[in-house]
Amino acid sequence: MDLELTEDEKDIRQWVRTFVEKEIMPLEQDVLARERRGERGLPPEELKQLQDLARESGFFGVQTPEEYGGMGLSAVMAALVEVELGRSFVPFRFGGYADNILFHANDAQKEEYLVPTIEGTKKSCFAITEPGAGSDARAIRTSAKKDGEDWVVTGEKTFITGGTEADFVMVFAVTDAEKHKEGRTGESVTCFIVDRDQGWTSDQIDTMGEWGPAALTFDGVRVPSSSILGEEGKGFALAMQWIGRGRYLLPARALGGCERMVEMGMEWAHNRETFGKPIAERQAIQWMVADSAVDIEALRWLVLAAAWQVDRGRDSRQAQSMAKLYGGVRCNEIVDRMLQVHGGMGYTRELPLERWYRELRLLRIYEGTDEIQRRTIARNLLKGHASVRGHLG
Ligand SMILES: Cc1cc2nc3c(=O)[nH]c(=O)nc-3n(C[C@H](O)[C@H](O)[C@H](O)COP(=O)(O)OP(=O)(O)OC[C@H]3O[C@@H](n4cnc5c(N)ncnc54)[C@H](O)[C@@H]3O)c2cc1C
């Protein structure tokens, strides 16, 4: 067993680390100030400038295949990159990304949607959740009815990330009501790529974080059959593939934030004196630091083990669910502890801790809630698909 990174992995990580320290962290105060004014922390033009700067050094499309101009990095490397990005709360990500399911598009769709998404000239969003169907995605009711050569899409989607800015949506609709009623979701749902100017509308939803997902309305939106992504009736598998695309990446990003928060907490504890001593000398504070460091270390290995399995083409679903669940729960505990270490200052908007506190809460909800991850993990064990001995057996 070798738990060391390769020299290449260390070099790439170092490049990202330096980029974050030199280009991203100096923006933090501006981001906080803008958000306090109710504006977007990182305006699109500034994000684009940063992405272009990274691209000049070849940093573009972290996991996008090289044939599409990306770097085609491994899952382990992508996780290491996310950890470094997560050390800052600035909502930056490298350019050159496209949703994994767009790679299933036909040649014409690739030209029209995949390539522009990678280049950043078009923005996508993914819409399965509905007011009556979240964790239970099989309960979707948005329908697409055949009318001549066209399909007519009707229904409502909710909590769609990027729904306010997207140029097009990958929307999931029931195309075979009979099979859907019988629970044959694998044959009853189809994914359509629909441009905004084909008629869907969006309304932003305010949240406790800086995210502004949207509710999307499809009021009889007519689309041609050429809008189907993949095959008619085979959309549900695509939706699951999108959701499962990188469950290890979400906790990886949170992990970076937690590392930074514990560093901030330790610095504060050294400098803040009460009753004649720095609080760092109090056991109550030391235990919060120690517990957080253990959680971070455990999460690091859950994330890397899941990514390692992805790279080897193994069935990584159990490992990914574990990383997502553990990350969601523990990172929320860590931010709470580090906010506590900072006392009243932790609660103010002068420090980013309250921002992280609001943002990390989402990790326990989207892309599979804690309860749904537990359900997956337990089912895999109880049905014998996974072992408590883990991948080493
Ligand atoms: C900011 C944000 C961004 C999002 N982005 C997207 C997006 O881009 N695209 C998209 O399609 N969706 C998106 N979502 C939707 C998200 O995936 C759902 O909110 C999530 O899956 C939970 O569904 P729900 O909100 O309907 O909760 P529900 O499914 O109604 O769950 C409510 C509670 O019941 C629990 N629960 C549900 N079923 C069970 C069970 N069987 N056993 C035990 N407990 C259970 C849940 O864990 C939760 O605690 C986003 C959500 C948010 C908040």
Main beta-sheet strand count, sense and barrel state: 4 strands, mixed
Ions, cofactors, ligands: which are bound? flavin-adenine dinucleotide
What percentage of the residues does DSSP assign to strands (E)? 5-15%
Tell me the helix content: 40-55%
Shape: globular
Task: Order the strands across the largest sheet as they lie in space.
Answer: 1-4-5-8
Radius of gyration: 22 Å
Structural class: alpha+beta
The tally of strands reads: 10
The overall pLDDT average reads 97
- What is the overall number of helices? 14
Parts with pLDDT < 50 across at least 5 consecutive residues: none
Quaternary structure state of the chains depicted: single chain
Tell me the distance between the termini: 14 Å
Order of H and E elements = HHHHHEEEEHHEEEEHHEEHHHHH
Keywords:
single chain; 393 residues; alpha+beta; 4-stranded mixed β-sheet; 4-stranded antiparallel β-sheet; 10 strands; globular; binds flavin-adenine dinucleotide
What does this structure look like?
The protein has 393 residues and is an alpha+beta fold. It has 14 helices and ten strands. A four-stranded mixed beta sheet has the order 1-4-5-8. The protein has a four-stranded antiparallel beta sheet with strand order 2-3-7-6, with no helix packed on it. Strands 9-10 form a two-stranded antiparallel sheet. The radius of gyration is 22 Å and the shape is globular. The model has no long low-confidence stretch (mean pLDDT 97). It binds flavin-adenine dinucleotide.
What does this entry show, briefly?
This protein has 393 residues and is of the alpha+beta class. 47% of the residues lie in helices and 14% in strands. Helix 4 packs parallel to helix 9.
